[in-house]
Design brief:
Blueprint: E1 3-6, H1 10-22, E2 28-30, H2 33-42, E3 47-51, H3 59-69, E4 77-82, H4 87-95, E5 100-103, H5 108-122
Parallel strand pairs: 1-2, 1-3, 3-4, 4-5
């Protein structure tokens, strides 16, 4: 799978990198929402792990922009990464076009489960 991680915090980038390595995935990284929108315009990502709170452009705004620019033939799975775990936060993410939601801090098993579901859907299983 092609994975993009939009995360402004260097420590969080390192944690996600190690988790993805353990799951045998690699990813491209960007540091803000504007870079995420640009990257998604250049590459057909299967998954975008999108931090909600980033400088320049946050994950909510970036997700809306990505959804508006996507081709009908390809739709990335956008997963919100956020420390805000209230129901209204989840609703804001879904309303912005995100497909799923992971509360920070998260563990390897959570990421594994989310990516496994997407991988199965891409392969037409389940």
């Amino acid at each position: 799978m092609r994975i993009l991680v939009a995360e402004d915090n260097h420590i969080n980038q390192m944690v996600v990198t190690k988790m993805l390595d353990r799951l045998s995935y690699t990813a491209d990284f960007v540091c803000d929402g504007r870079e995420a929108v640009a990257a998604a315009g250049r590459v057909l990502y299967d998954v975008i792990l999108m931090d909600v709170m980033m400088p320049i452009m946050g994950g909510i705004e970036a997700s809306v922009a990505i959804r508006h620019s996507e081709s009908p033939a390809h739709r990335a799975h956008i997963i919100a990464l956020t420390a805000n775990a209230m129901d209204e936060d989840r609703e804001r993410c879904i309303d912005a076009g995100m497909d799923d939601f992971i509360s920070k801090p998260f563990v390897l098993d959570t990421l594994r489960e989310k990516l496994s579901v997407i991988a199965a859907a891409i392969q037409g299983v389940g």
